[in-house]
């Protein structure tokens, strides 16, 4: 190939690469842009209320606050850590301690407001700080800002709306924006309050009419009878007497008049209470994805149903944790970009969730381990809450190439942990059964029945039998049973994750 043809081929390839790197389907090309210099919030509830997100701040209700706080508590009640398993561990530890000192927990709670409003905005105040690493530029404060102060541009950039009506684009590394499932069509995020607006409005209307209903059907009506010769003034005076009778239960009635109390009876159910209950259930579903953990219906519920409902809430907690972690990790990246721009490995934040919410993280770690990633003991302690004295790190893991070798896939083993756990569980179970057989629960009752002279005597003395039962031995063995149950649970999780066999 000639040099000329080769040069032309390289130029063609470069142009093709440039075209692939360039965005083509943008909002400016595909949609008609109005005269506005920002993208309006597409939330239909806000559009019908002047576009002011303040309408969501006025949604005050005890049940709404309860389900909101329950969802927030799944994240705010958990500890968090900065994972420094990669890169410089000392720098990661420093960042973790520094973020603790600026009250990141309160910031996390504010970030969770993005669930209700769709987005939350925080301004970062940077300053020079003397540290063991020298003078660093670090965030000295993370300040919560009102959502109504900001808009988003056509390209999703954050704009500050000033009091004179203009909008200014914000500088880089200055504002953290936490958004709940944003999209190209809606960079403002998904606002859960929008799904609670009408249920709450109907609930308030239902409560208003419910109070009128209670007053109407809960109090008897007083009917006064006056002679036909009574004048207009005498009739008005008699009406005031009836009003006092209803309010104070005391009235002076002339001899020429009479009073009859008429009770109003209701047949069927109260429709207003059904509206209120429906509204509460709708708000529970919007915030928690379920209703069984917040209210018990007349139809009750099974254990399986309760488990399914709790799993739905657990999935939302994982989603919320990922949203908060994403925002905090953005801040950590900025700290490294400003102070240690040459660092290739940057630590990240982990919110430590309960064991039953850790399965997704556990499956991820197992896959990384099979690819050759090595986690240290500190990682296991920080992320899964297992003290180092209860485990030992295994030997070298299989290389990544082994995953693609022929034959069945091999799973990494942690010594003979599966066999040991199973043996301990079985031993505890057998021991508990032997000890319980030694305790004759029915002996005091049999003795009472044999010596009693009547059924009444058995009934009266039956409760006293329980106080004499030898339950101390059983209580001691129950401690061993709880330990056996804990071991069985840990064995089940490790087996499910594929870390152990057996």
Outline the structure in words.
By secondary structure, the chain is mainly alpha-helical. It has helices at residues 3-21, 27-30, 44-47, 54-57, 62-76, 89-101, 104-111, 114-117, 197-218, 232-248, 271-288, 303-339, 359-370, 377-384, 417-438, 443-451, 455-467, 472-497; strands at residues 80-83, 119-131, 134-145, 150-152, 158-161, 167-169, 175-179, 221-225, 258-262, 348-351. Mean pLDDT is 74; it is low at 397-415. It contains 18 helices and ten strands. The chain folds into three domains: 1-220 and 270-357, no CATH class; 221-262, no CATH class; 417-497, no CATH class. The protein has a three-stranded antiparallel beta sheet with strand order 3-2-7. Strands 4-5-6 form a three-stranded antiparallel beta sheet, with no helix packed on it. A hairpin with a 2-residue loop joins strand 2 and strand 3. 51% of the residues lie in helices and 12% in strands. The longest helix is centred in the middle third of the chain and has 37 residues, at 303-339.
Name a few traits of the molecule.
502 residues, mainly alpha, three-stranded antiparallel β-sheet, 18 helices
């Amino acid at each position: 190939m000639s040099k000329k043809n080769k040069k032309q081929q390289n130029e063609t390839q470069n142009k093709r690469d440039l075209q692939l790197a360039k965005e083509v389907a943008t909002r400016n090309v595909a949609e008609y842009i109005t005269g506005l210099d920002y993208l309006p919030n597409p939330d239909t509830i806000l559009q019908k209320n002047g576009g002011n997100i303040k309408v969501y701040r006025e949604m005050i209700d005890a049940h709404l606050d309860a389900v909101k706080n329950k969802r927030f508590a799944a994240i705010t009640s958990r500890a968090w850590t900065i994972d420094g398993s990669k890169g410089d561990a000392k720098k990661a530890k420093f960042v973790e301690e520094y973020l603790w000192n600026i009250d990141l927990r309160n910031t996390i709670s504010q970030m969770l407001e993005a669930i209700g409003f769709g987005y939350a905005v925080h301004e970062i105040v940077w300053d020079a700080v003397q540290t063991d690493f020298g003078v660093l530029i670090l965030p000295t404060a993370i300040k919560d800002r009102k959502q109504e102060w900001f808009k988003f541009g056509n390209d999703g950039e954050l704009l500050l709306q000033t009091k004179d009506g203009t909008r200014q684009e914000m500088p880089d590394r200055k504002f953290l924006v936490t958004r709940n499932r944003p999209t190209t069509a809606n960079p403002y995020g998904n606002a859960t309050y929008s799904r609670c607006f009408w249920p709450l409005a109907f609930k308030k209307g239902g409560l208003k009419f419910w109070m009128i209903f209670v007053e109407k059907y809960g109090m008897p009506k007083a009917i006064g009878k006056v002679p036909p010769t009574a004048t207009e003034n005498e009739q008005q005076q008699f009406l005031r007497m009836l009003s006092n009778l209803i309010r104070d239960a005391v009235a002076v009635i002339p001899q020429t008049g009479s009073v009859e109390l008429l009770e109003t009876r209701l047949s069927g159910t109260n429709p207003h209470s059904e509206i209120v209950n429906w509204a509460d259930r709708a708000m529970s579903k919007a915030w928690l994805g379920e209703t069984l953990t917040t209210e018990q219906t007349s139809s009750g519920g099974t254990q399986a149903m309760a488990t399914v409902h709790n799993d739905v809430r657990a999935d939302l907690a994982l989603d919320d944790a990922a949203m908060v972690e994403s925002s905090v990790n953005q801040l950590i990246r900025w700290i490294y970009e400003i102070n240690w721009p040459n660092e290739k490995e940057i630590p990240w934040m982990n919110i430590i969730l309960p064991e039953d919410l850790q399965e997704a993280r556990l499956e991820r770690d197992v896959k990384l381990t099979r690819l050759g990633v090595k986690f240290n003991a500190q990682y296991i302690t920080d992320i899964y809450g297992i003290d180092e004295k209860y485990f030992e790190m295994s030997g070298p893991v299989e290389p990544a190439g082994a995953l693609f070798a022929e034959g069945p896939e091999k799973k990494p083993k942690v010594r003979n942990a599966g066999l040991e756990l199973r043996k301990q569980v079985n031993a505890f179970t057998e021991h508990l059964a032997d000890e319980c057989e030694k305790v004759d629960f029915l002996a005091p009752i049999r003795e009472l029945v044999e010596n009693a002279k009547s059924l009444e005597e058995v009934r009266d003395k039956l409760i006293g039998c329980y106080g004499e039962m030898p339950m101390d031995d059983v209580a001691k063995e129950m401690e061993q049973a709880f330990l056996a149950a804990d071991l069985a649970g840990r064995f089940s999780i490790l087996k499910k994750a594929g870390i152990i066999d057996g």
